[in-house]
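Bench log, entry 3. Co-assembly request; chain sequences pasted below exactly as received.
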Amino acid sequence: MPVWLREYSWRQTGSAVYLSLPLRGVRVTPANIFCTDQYLKVSIPPFLFEAILYAPIDDTNSTAKIGNGIIFFTLYKKEVAMWDSLTLANANKEKLQYLRENAVLKAHEKAKEETEAKKVTKQEHKKYALEATMKLEEAERKRIEDLKEKERERVTKELELWKKQQKDAEKQKRVQKEGELHQEVEQLKEKKKEKMNKTRIPNEGTSKTRLKPTKGCHGFYSMFSENVKEEQLPAPRSAATIKINFTSRVFPTALRESRIAEEEEWLRKQAEARRTVSADLSELEDLKEEEKNPDWLKDKGNKMFATGNYLAAVNAYNLAVRLNNKLPLLYLNRAACHLKLRNLHKAIEDSSKALELLTPPVPDNENARVKAYVRRGTAFCQLELYTEGLQDYEAALKIDPKNKSIEKDAEKIRHLIQGTTQDS
Amino acid sequence: MSSGGTERPQLVAHVQQALSYTLFDCKWVPRSARLLCLGSAARGTGLLQLYELRGGRLALLREIEKAKPIKCGTFGATSLQQRYLATGDFGGNLNIWNLEAPEIPVYSVKGHKEIINSIDGVGGLGIGEGAPEIVTGSRDGTVKVWDPRQKDTPVANMEPVQGESKRDCWTVAFGNAYNQEERVVCAGYDNGDIKLFDLKTMSLRWETNIKNGVCSVEFDRKDVNMNKLVATSLEGKFHVFDMRTQHPTKGFASVSEKAQKSTIWQVRHLPQNRDIFMTSGGAGSLHLWKYEYPAQRSKKDSEGAEMGVAGSVSLLQNVTLSTQPISSLDWSPDKKGLCVCGAFDQTVRVLIVTKLNKV
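Structure output for the full assembly:
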């Protein structure tokens, strides 16, 4: 239950009401005061003061002054009149309730309206500011455009002027040239006349030759000048060649600094892929650097095979295989050596290993695969395992159907097989 | 934005013309307001178009079609009266045309096995002395010098040693042609090599590698004692070499600048002021630069040999005209500041650079 405050004093003038409400020992803030046009409430729990005013007041302009322990209200009346009392006398509970609620509602609405109004004004201000800045920028832009336009016009005019000057200059030159030529021709004619007058016979020849070049005014003039010029031009240079070397570059594309790192990575990876797979054999320390390179050893082996030194070739291939056992060509070539040496089982082994390494079967390793099949086939035949041999020859034919020698050999083997089956 | 102080040169776009073919090179016809566009039509033939500047537009005067697409051309080796155009095409043929009678070339030779990437001429146009010569650089890795008076065989041939794998030659330029005997050819290759060949002694005078493919080289003046050489490359870099002092081991001093992220396709010096040059870029931009000489152009190193000192380069202005690379650029030798540029968006643009007198 709130504590009602009933001690108040008031006085009035025609247009205002002055109300003072003593509050001892409580702190008042503006939030505690609630006022609408006919209802005034001060609520500081547990204290409560409320008054239903005699007549409506102008609550927006009315003020409340919070002093030491007292609130002093200055309420401006809506209608200028003298009030009989501060509050409405006959106020029953219901009316009170209704008035209270109304008051609260009104206050709410007012607050809403105020916020709306504020928002609207804020928006308008923003818009205005935006428009102002846009105008400024537009003006700036226009100014720059105008400057540019002016430059452009000025420069175009200059250009036209220059063109005109050029044309005039050309015309003048042409006129001048013709004038000069005319003069020259006149001079010559005069000279000719003079010479003719002096002695006729010996000079006729010369005068004729003199006049010949005057086919047309232009022809004479330009030939004259060209003769002079050609004397001044040096002869064409004697032909020579300069040989040059380029800074080496592995890739066919142009050099770009930003790509150097990528390219080095790629090259490094390629080199590593070719390098030794098992490089921790202690005997390898004795070998020279190049002897540790499987490619070099392969080349060595090939050379020795070519000269007929099959055992040495096999040795080279063996060492190469120890260094890198993933190169199919090493096994392939070793198989050929074994064939020559008639180590047929070893030849079969090596060709099989080569074929294993030559998966996946792609066009790039066609050649190698054909050779592998042929060698294995030969080895089988020499061991008299003709059916296996035929199988391999047919596989080789499948890869390379155009090879005549393989066909012939396959035929031979077929005959042989048929021969033996017939016999047995 | 080409704004800034009102004292800086402005690059004003004067005329723009859309073309219906790929433009590879554009050149001013000397002593006239006409320009030539060289390129390749969609059907794989070469096109030569002659335009004249009239008012605010380009008027087409002649159109000539040839069998092979034309990559580059020059007026450098003809006299002013004749004004014959030397062109290099995609088939490796060097032809010299009389534009008044273009059906049959005045001179023709199948100079190279592959496309001629770049051509330059010297000895004509009343500039300098000496025999008129044309140099061509091709994708087959060779650089050949031709004299229009000598048929079929080049006067000088710079080719790779037997067995050497070839690199594309992307650009060539003449220089040092200050009297009848002296002449020098500079060639840039796609692996970053720049080689300087001396034609008087028929030897390689200097070479270096600038770590990026060389797109364009030009001396500031062909007909004086060689002064400066600008070499532009991929990755937006260009180098200015001071060519007055050659050190026995270090070669020529240089200053380099990174202008933009894209390739710098061309460099052209202003004919009326050899310290101003313009570079065109792969992003469709043009940059105008000024070179400033150092206080002393040469100094002695620790062993007493003379060594050049490079100066500095400052950007005067830049403008972006297109989204495609501007592959060709030419200053008019008659009107200061007038230039034409051709881009891969099939447009040719005429620009005027103002305030060059105040630079």
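The domain at 291-418 of chain A is CATH 1.25.40.10 (Serine Threonine Protein Phosphatase 5, Tetratricopeptide repeat). Strands of chain A lie at 3-4, 9-12, 16-22, 33-35, 39-44, 47-52, 63-67, 70-76, 240-244.
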